[in-house]
Amino acid sequence: MLRIATRQSPLALWQAEHVAALLASAGIQTVLVPMVSSGDTDMRPIDGTRQVGLFTKRIQQALLEDEGDIAVHSLKDLPTEVNELLTLAAVPVRETVTDCLVSKSGVKFSDLPNGAKIGTGSRRRAAQILSRRPDLNVEGIRGNVQTRLSKLDEGFDAIVLADAGLVRLEMADLPRYHFTFDEMLPAPGQGALGIEVRANDKQALEAAATMDDMATRAAVTAERTLLSSLHGGCLAPIAAYAVVDGDVLRMSAVALSPDGRKRIDETDEIEFANDLSAAVELANRISQRMVDAGAIEMVRG
Ligand SMILES: NCc1[nH]cc(CCC(=O)O)c1CC(=O)O
Fold first, then answer.
1. CA 116 / ligand 1 centre spacing (Å)
2. What molecular function terms (GO) are annotated for this protein (predicted)?
3. Ligand 1 site, residue 52, Cβ cutoff 6 A
4. Residue 163, exposed/middle/buried by CB under 10 A (0-12, 13-18, 19+)?
5. Cβ(186) – ligand 1 distance below 6 Å
6. Which H/E stretch holds residue 91?
7. How many structural domains is the chain composed of?
């Protein structure tokens, strides 16, 4: 019986149960072990004064202390720094990656009235909104998906959320507009799950391997390699989306100044034959061009 360590937010529990179902379909029995994480209770805005990895550390700790065998993360919340005792053992199929503008009316981004008040706690989202619509009034909001949605009753015209979270929480019938990739590129790893196990736990490694999807893993490897090359961390105004299309892996990326006034956009593709080295090479090419154009200084603001 493998133990799945999970946070207790509704989204985390959905994701852990999803992984339990994937494993069950491969004939592997599991039990959920819920943990308390400070990321769920801390309502301070996410900014430079808070560490990255807040959501994922508690679950990693559970593995290291042998309270669980399998950690289920939202991959975009998982820092790119590697802990040698843990392995990213699987990345299941990614279904939806876009960001959504959620409002009472479902208004399109380009139809928002001048000066509309938009809630997001993410620098990546704030910078991209201001880049395309400098007239908008972007304000920080925090908390889980349900808490953030309540802001629509408290003076916010719209908030920005990942489509993946809304679909998983069965909120897909909320009025919402799907951003185009030109308006808003997602966070590296957005919409994907990351399955971590202890690096020396053969049984868990084998179980996780049954869930791995090579095309998704290649895409998120490219996105996360780029993020780490730009020394971004998951809080930086850096966005990237990669996808396998036939025998090609393609990626678009953007780095912005936090105020959205400056941006560097890059896109490129590489031949892909089920090997992660192509993903790393694609990321290196794109990140080199972005670094040469001044991306590292730009994202610091
Ligand atoms: N940072 C919080 C978080 N982590 C993962 C998701 C949703 C699922 C995903 O994007 O993979 C969310 C909510 C959101 O960004 O709206």
1. 23
2. hydroxymethylbilane synthase activity
3. no
4. buried
5. no
6. none
7. 3
- Alpha helices by DSSP H, listed for 156-213, are 163-168, 202-209
Q: pTM for the full model?
A: 0.94
Among 268, 209, 226, 270, smallest CA distance to 124 is for 226
pLDDT at 143: 86
Q: Of 239, 249, 244, which Cα lies nearest the Cα of 281?
A: 249
Among 33-42, 180-189, 271-280, the minimum mean pLDDT is found in: 33-42
Whether 92 is in the pocket of ligand 1, judged by its Cβ within 6 Å, is no
Q: What does the DSSP assignment read for 246-286? A: TTEEEEEEEEE-TTSS-EEEEEEEEE-SS-HHHHHHHHHHH
74 ligand 1 Cβ < 6 A: yes
* Crossing angle (nearest 10°) for helices 276-292 and 214-229: 30
Closest CA to 207 of 5, 22, 14, 9: 22
Q: Could you tell me the CATH number of the domain that includes residue 153?
A: 3.40.190.10
| Poorest-pLDDT segment among 26-40, 82-96, 176-190, 207-221 | 26-40
**Active site annotation includes 77:** yes
Q: Please check whether residues 270 and 207 belong to one and the same domain.
A: no
Q: Which of 40, 66, 69, 77 is catalytic?
A: 77
Residue 82 shares a structural domain with residue 196: yes
Q: Any idea which residue has 């009235």 for tokens?
A: 113
